[in-house]
Amino acid sequence: MTTLPPQPVPASESSGTDPAKRVLPPSPKAAAIVALAFTVLLYLVELVDVVLPADLDQGGILARDVSGLDGVLWAPLLHAGWGHLFSNTVPVLVFAFLAMASGIGRWVLVTAIIWVLSGLGVWLIAPDDTVTVGASGVAFGWLAFLLVRGIFNRAAGQILVAVLLLGIWSGMLWGLLPGDPGVSWQGHLFGALSGVFAAWVVARMDKTRARKTVAGGPGSLAV
């Protein structure tokens, strides 16, 4: 019979801090670099679109056309001019950064869920013969994720951040309703719904991980 010494307890567990309830990214510098890099990518794509004779915006989501399904992948990277991109820049930077509170890996998962589901929603219900582009659907998804994650996690700090964000960007909520025919409320709506779904998925994953940690918690192992 062999008794192994107790396993070291991670700092987050020993200090009682739940990683799922973080308000800011565990590595703010890395998160800021990722958010900035994504935003720079959007500007580079728009610059290429302006310089090249080809109209890259036609690679967006073409509603209910099989040939337009690949636009689900490209639409968030494309914008209908600099003004469109400028209007998305600050929300993209802020929401992307805060959405990395659970780590960059979880942020990638959340972003992928929002990116794909919001795009498919646009493809299904956008008006015929319309091409939809822009990162606003993803931005709405991140915002919705930030607004509801605290409820799923029962985290007071995250709920407080949600209230602050809602106070600052409450005007964005009008984008969920039909209005300006040149604005894709469909993308905003499905982005927001996808963000809520992503928050639920991540919360379930965190709870499952927490249960496994408790069940197989640190201690001695005898064989």
UniProtKB/TrEMBL annotation:
Pfam families the record matches: Rhomboid (PF01694)
Topology within the bilayer: Multi-pass membrane protein
One Gene Ontology CC term in the entry: membrane
Limits of the Peptidase S54 rhomboid domain: 74-204
Transmembrane segments: 30-52, 72-100, 107-126, 132-152, 159-177, 183-203
One GO term (biological process): proteolysis
Compartments where located: Membrane
UniProt KW keywords: Hydrolase, Membrane, Protease, Transmembrane, Transmembrane helix
SUPFAM superfamilies reported for this sequence: Rhomboid-like
GO MF annotation terms: serine-type endopeptidase activity
Disordered, as annotated region: 1-22
Xref: InterPro entries: Peptidase_S54_rhomboid_dom, Rhomboid-like_sf
Family named by the database record: Belongs to the peptidase S54 family.
The protein's name: Rhomboid family intramembrane serine protease
Species classification: Bacteria, Bacillati, Actinomycetota, Actinomycetes, Pseudonocardiales
